[in-house]
Design brief:
The protein has about 180 residues and is α+β, with helices and mostly antiparallel strands. Helix content is about 55%, strand content about 10%.
Length: about 180
């Protein structure tokens, strides 16, 4: 039971927004399936006709460089040298026809459930915003403060990061003589 929870959390964290699509990168899929990334890509390339551009695409060098900056990778001597492949929801579903292990089947089911859950959350958030808009038009300005407060609560939290380093106060002596 706990193992399934960890996999679900890993799946949720693996879904990224690239080119406006929700995708999972090949290395994340390989880790979930318990295979090497190289083996996953080989299986896909052997069945490339099953993966059109809207199912799978390879990141550009610029996208790959941006991704490296976001997640941090190993030094120039290790790590990946080629841009990863990104799989859409349909591409992940198609992987089930290429990978036949029992683990691959279980992981695919969980990934599909996660995509559905994500879609439902986004839809409910959009419905809530639309209902709030309708209510705001219906009632007068005295409720504007309430609507603004609700909108503010709907915004994702942005935490201020603490400043790193030392703060020096100009004009104050560092040492005092007695």
């Amino acid at each position: 039971m706990a193992k399934a929870q960890i996999d679900i959390l890993h799946i949720e964290r693996s879904i990224r927004l690239i080119r406006g699509d929700k995708v999972i990168l090949d290395e994340d899929l390989a880790e979930l399936y318990g295979v090497e990334t190289k083996k996953l890509i080989q299986a896909v390339k052997r069945n490339i006709e099953r993966f059109p551009a809207d199912f799978m695409f390879q990141l550009t060098n610029q996208e790959f460089a941006n991704l490296r900056c976001q997640i941090g990778t190993s030094s120039q001597w290790g790590g990946r040298r080629t841009p990863p492949y990104a799989f859409s929801e349909q591409g992940v579903a198609m992987l089930s026809s290429v990978l036949h292990s029992p683990r691959a089947i279980q992981v695919n089911v969980e990934i599909m459930r996660t995509f559905v859950r994500l879609r439902r959350m986004l839809a409910s958030h959009a419905d809530l915003a639309q209902r709030l808009e309708e209510l705001e038009q219906k009632y007068d300005a005295q409720f504007r403060v309430v609507f603004d407060a609700i909108r503010q609560l709907m915004q994702p939290e942005t935490k201020e990061r603490p400043k790193i380093g030392f703060t020096v106060k100009e004009g104050t002596p560092i040492y005092s003589q007695e």
